[in-house]
Amino acid sequence: MTDKIVTHAELKANNTKEKTWLLLHGKVYDATAFAEEHPGGDDAIYAVAGRDSTEEFEDAGHSKDARDLLEEMLVGTIEASRPHIGALSTAPHSSPNWAAR
Ligand code: HEM
C-alpha cells in the first residue's frame, strides 16, 4: 500500500519508455517494466502514458488477472483535480492549489 499523492505535473512528465506512468480510476501506475510484456502491445501503453487512460483500459475489457497485475505497479493517488471555476465555488481566489505547478 502507498498513500503517495502524485501531482498532474509528475504524471505528465512520466510519459516516456524510460518512465511510463498511467492514470486509471484515480490511481497512478508505473507500467515501465510491464509495457513490453503487455499482451495488447507496448504501443497501447506508450500511447496513453502520462495521462488518464481509464477509458482505453476499460474499452479493452481487461480481465481480473489484468487488474490484479496493477496492484504491484501502484505508485499512488492522483492529486485532487482543479476546482470547477465558477461552479458555486467558495474557494479563495488567492490560492488555487492547481496554480504554479
Ligand atoms: C498497466 C496497465 C495495463 C495492464 C496491467 C494490462 C494488462 C493486460 C493483460 C493481462 C491483457 C491480456 C488479456 C486480459 O487478461 O485481459 C491485456 C490485453 C489487452 N490490453 Fe491491456 N493492460 C494495461 C493497459 C492497457 C491500455 C491502456 C490499453 C489500451 C490503450 C490496453 C489494451 C489492451 C488490449 C487491446 C488487449 C487485448 C490484446 C489481445 O487480446 O489481442 N491495455 N492487457
TrEMBL record:
Record key words, sorted: Electron transport, Endoplasmic reticulum, Heme, Iron, Membrane, Metal-binding, Microsome, Transmembrane, Transport
UniProt name for this protein: Cytochrome b5
UniProt domain Cytochrome b5 heme-binding: residue ranges: 3-79
Stretch forming the signal peptide: none
Membrane-protein topology: Single-pass membrane protein
UniProt-listed InterPro entries: Cyt_B5-like_heme/steroid-bd (IPR001199), Cyt_B5-like_heme/steroid_sf (IPR036400), Cytochrome_b5 (IPR050668)
GO molecular function terms noted in the UniProt entry: heme binding; metal ion binding
First-listed, main subcellular location of the protein, grouped into a coarse class: endoplasmic reticulum
GO cellular component, one term: endoplasmic reticulum membrane
Subcellular location: Endoplasmic reticulum membrane; Microsome membrane
Recorded family membership: Belongs to the cytochrome b5 family.
